[in-house]
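Design job #97: recover the sequence.
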């Protein structure tokens, strides 16, 4: 149940990101197609972050220290671009137009996901 809540949270955050950030969008034919695309892209985003982010943190530890953590913003943007690339490879109507759209999109995603997680408890009942 916790996985579904996190997936829904990420999908809603992704949807809000497409509304706020120019250059990040979903072009589904219908509302259902758009919602399905958002859920699949949220799943891709979750897998990319779960698999690559820990490896990047270990390998790029020095950069995180030298930049006082600001390197994480660049890493998040690049992971967002990777999600876009995978979505396009799967022929999903999701697009990110360049690094700066990915940069701001990753920031908005992080903030919105955090705000939703404050309101919606996970499967253990914690907020």
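Job complete. Output follows.
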């Amino acid at each position: 149940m916790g996985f579904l809540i996190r997936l829904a949270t990420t999908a809603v955050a992704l949807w809000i990101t497409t509304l706020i950030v120019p250059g990040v969008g979903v072009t589904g034919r219908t509302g259902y197609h758009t919602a399905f695309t958002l859920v699949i892209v949220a799943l891709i985003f979750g897998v990319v972050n779960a698999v690559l982010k820990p490896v990047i943190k270990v390998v790029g530890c020095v950069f995180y220290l030298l930049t006082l953590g600001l390197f994480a913003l660049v890493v998040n943007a690049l992971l967002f671009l990777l999600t876009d690339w995978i979505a396009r490879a799967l022929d999903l109507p999701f697009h990110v137009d360049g690094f700066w759209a990915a940069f701001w999109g990753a920031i908005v995603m992080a903030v919105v996901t955090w705000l939703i997680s404050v309101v919606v408890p996970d499967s253990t009942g914690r907020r």
